[in-house]
Amino acid sequence: MFKKQLKTFLHDRKLTAAEVARRTGVPKQTLSDWLSGTQPRNMEYVRRVAEELHVTTTQLFFDVPQLKEDEKKLADLKEKSITLNSMQHYCDFFFGNAIALMHIVDLRTGYPNILSPSWEKTLGWPRSDLMKKKWIDLVHPEDRSRVKSVVQKNASAQVSICEHRLLQSKGGYVHVFTKLAVDTAAQIMTSVSLPSEVYQALSQREKADFLQSMGGAGPVQSKRQGLPSV
Questions:
Q1: Vertex 9: Cα angle to 6 and 11 (nearest 5)
Q2: d(Cα 86, Cα 142) in Å, to the nearest integer?
Q3: In this structure, are residues 17 and 35 in contact, taking their beta carbons and an 8 Å threshold?
């Protein structure tokens, strides 16, 4: 999504990567890498480019109106009882280049039904392995009771934002901010996670945009607590 958004804004403003690099001090190679599909890690560079393009960092990472429409379509598919396999293909198509980690979990079994490709890219596990792991087993042991508590207290109309850590295949952990929504009738949980460095770099307005772009409804409950460094 970042690559697509950056190309679109450059085209609309009739700017080249070289011109933006010269004006912002961001290395031209960095911009070239982004335009080739590399996900940005230096949020200061992202902020400079966003300011030059007169957009927010959220707009560079997400096509907000499109995400709302995509998630409405995904919900429609679920309501029409489309097979999980078809929903996974749909998720892959619309979330293929997204930095956010999106998944839908069956709360009766604890296993994921749907996973976005970013889970594999961020955590290093192949999808086949991720589908065999209960979602709570990927959460840092010290964070599990708190995250489970957030899920258990959620009602259908509520959404919570929770900071925690996810296990990577090589043994490390990645800090994330996760938006959780529970459908108690269907016994499923939908979550969308942003890496901490991306979420923390957003302004308060951009964080609100993130919550709204991910289909938030009802009151948002903050369940953030400080995490020990690892």
A1: 105
A2: 35
A3: yes
Can you list the pairs that 142-149 forms with residues at least 24 positions away whose Cβ atoms lie under 8 Å? 142/228, 143/227, 146/223, 146/225, 147/178
pLDDT, one tens digit per residue, over 126-174 is 988 998 999 999 999 999 998 888 887 765 456 778 899 999 999 999 9
Burial class (CB in 10 A: 0-12, 13-18, 19+), 211: middle
Domain assignments of the chain as residue spans, ordered by start = 2-61, 64-222
Between the CA atoms of 202, 177, 64 and 95, what dihedral angle is there, to the nearest 10 degrees?
130
Better-predicted residue by pLDDT, 143 or 118: 143
Out of 3.30.450.20, 2.60.40.60, 3.40.1190.20, 3.90.1720.10, select the CATH number for domain 64-222. Answer: 3.30.450.20
What letter would DSSP give residue 135? G
Report the alpha-carbon distance of residue 45 to residue 68 in Å, rounded: 27
Average pLDDT over residues 30-49: 87
Q: What is the pLDDT of residues 167-212, one digit of tens each?
A: 999 999 999 998 888 887 778 888 888 888 888 888 888 777 766 6
The class (CATH top level) of 2-61 is mainly alpha
